[in-house]
Amino acid sequence: MSVLDFFLNPPTGLTVPILLAISFVLGLLHGGTPDEHTWPITFSYSIGSYTSRGGLKSGLVFSTGFAVQRAILTALGFLGLASIYLVYNLDGPIYVLVGIAMFGAGWFLLRGSDIHLPLDHLLERLFGQFFREHTHHRTVAERSPLPETGVKPVPLRMAAVHGFIAGWGIGGFATIIVFVLAPEMPNVLWAAAVGGFFGLGTMVMQMITGALFARLARLKRLSLAQMQRVGRRTAARTLYVGGLAFVAIGLVVAVAPWIENYALGTGSSIPNLNSIGVAFVLIVTVVGGIGGYSLWKGYREVLAPAAGPERRSEPNPP
Predict the structure, then answer these.
(1) Structure pTM?
(2) I want to staple 24 with a disulfide (CB 3.0 to 4.6 A). Which of 138, 201, 249, 303 is the partner?
(3) CB 291 within 8 A of CB 234
(4) Is the dihedral of CA 102, 67, 205, 178 positive or negative?
(5) What is residue 264's three-state secondary structure?
(6) SS3 171
(7) Do 196 and 26 touch, CB atoms closer than 8 A?
């Protein structure tokens, strides 16, 4: 048995320290591979921080909520209460909940901004005064001098909420810790520790990927104000439109769960890398498509002739 096989297919009868170590390593693999429950959200909040330190913090905050949820999930696995995942496909509903949370965060960030996004008028028609207030704030902002970025700061506390919600989605790594490792523990508290150590491993890698995502806002020689503008607008757009993408795909999966059976195998045995299916499409759509386009559009906006005076030499943040 290779080392990788040992971690992905752990034998029975292992000691508690070894089981916790396996959980931590699986968390590292989970955080370092493209996962629809982590990367889109980490990208959104990290790019909004526009600094490496901010990206590290985004990954930390998101993974804290995620680790708490995983501790609860493995405790449920020990008690046999997680068997609902074996009976029902909950991917669709989880995608929808994550999408609603993302959309809500993006909408909050864009209130009062000068950014026009899809669904504004439709939402005003459907929900009346609540969304008319959004439109009113935006109209007032268009008439008044805009703040330096035109978009509110990204509240990292929301990343923890997103991490907790997204953690209820279950994939290859979660299956191992919930149905293989947790039942091997002597009691429910040690079973919760399995999820906690898995969350810690995910946290380490999400802090690293968060820092890398944040540096995307610094690929061009921009001033501090311009980087802040690009980062915040990219984050807000990605959360807003990416949330809609999550909801749309979630509804499709909820109605037709069999669609997840169609995937192109890659030959790898590592979850998240072993196939190209709905989850991979969701990651590419939100991070590569929506996030990438939003980043490009943000650069276009700050480098437009009207933004020329902003482009002064300022020290880059760490």
Answers:
(1) 0.82
(2) 201
(3) yes
(4) negative
(5) strand
(6) coil
(7) no
